[in-house]
Design goal:
The longest helix is centred in the middle third of the chain and has 19 residues. This protein has a single domain, classed as Alpha/Beta hydrolase fold, catalytic domain (Rossmann fold, 3-Layer(aba) Sandwich), CATH 3.40.50. The radius of gyration is 18 Å and the shape is globular. The protein contains eight helices and eight strands. With 276 residues, the protein is an alpha/beta fold.
Length: 276
């Protein structure tokens, strides 16, 4: 087998977030033979929680999304550029939540959430233009996808609506929408959705962890399942056709990268079906 097949180049950039006056690491995984096939341009998949995307040694849980093996072991997938955008550490919950968290057992003086719109704007007005300028991308919405898990799924679902003219595919893993469900529900109800968008949704029956327990009342496992089913129905109500949505509920799967990595190839396959 051609050795270059196993050689995928990962490039690192630090992009300026003006609203926080700090740099954010963004890494770009290039498809095989990117340097050789100079006439080719490629679809782009943006992934949140960049620290967990490429290498297990960096990942919070000790497991990564295993994007590189997913691409190598599934040669039927079209060639694509994958961009991992790091989360903000302690700021992660604020950046990935467009609304203030008000429906939780936290004491009222705890202010959490509400910076999601600013973070989304950074991705769409700084990161995406930088990638499109520096790499040979297919920059239209049909060849642009956004993938995230848990709170990263929340911000992806929000961005899929807010930037529907620029994002054509969404991978929503273990959506944690219970955290601001009232705000999200009223937001999606008053927005026009894009019937041409493709949305992959997955949730396990054993979701939820100790961190969640501090933020929510009631049955966590059920909250994750209910949230994904509700989002699925909201998309249908908003006239996204059923064949453009893939919903998977996996028995016994938990809330971690191991579960998400397992199904990433299926997600990429589904999102790329209409890529030329």
């Amino acid at each position: 087998m051609n050795k270059s097949y196993f050689y995928l180049k990962l490039e690192t950039h630090h992009l300026h977030m003006s609203y926080k006056n700090e740099e954010r690491r963004v890494r770009v995984l290039l498809p095989k033979n990117y340097d050789i096939d100079e006439a080719e341009s490629y679809p782009v998949v943006y992934m949140h929680d960049g620290q967990n995307v490429f290498y297990s040694s960096e990942s919070y849980s000790g497991n990564s999304w295993k994007v590189i093996p997913a691409i190598k072991q599934n040669p039927d997938l079209p060639r694509m550029i994958v961009v991992g955008i790091d989360h903000g550490g302690q700021e992660r919950i604020n950046e990935y939540t467009p609304w203030k968290i008000t429906e939780s057992p936290l004491p009222e003086e705890f202010e959490l959430g509400g910076r999601g719109a600013e973070f989304a704007e950074f991705v769409m007005t700084v990161v995406k233009p930088f990638i499109d300028q520096h790499y040979r991308t297919k920059s239209d919405k049909y060849h642009t996808a956004m993938i995230g898990s848990s709170l990263g799924g929340n911000i992806s679902a929000f961005m899929g609506i807010e930037y529907k003219d620029q994002i054509g595919g969404l991978g929503i893993f273990s959506l944690a929408n219970w955290i601001t469900s009232k705000a999200f529900d009223s937001y999606i109800a008053r927005k026009e959705l894009d019937p041409e968008q493709r949305v992959y949704i997955q949730v396990g029956t054993q979701e939820g962890d100790e961190t969640d327990r501090k933020l929510m009342y009631g049955n966590m496992k059920q909250a994750y399942i209910d949230g994904s089913l509700k989002y699925y129905n909201q998309l249908l109500t908003g006239s996204v056709p059923i064949e453009s949505i893939r919903l998977n509920i996996f028995a016994d799967e938990e809330h971690n990268e191991k579960a998400w990595a397992k199904h990433l190839p299926e997600c990429l396959r589904f999102l790329s079906e209409k890529w030329s």
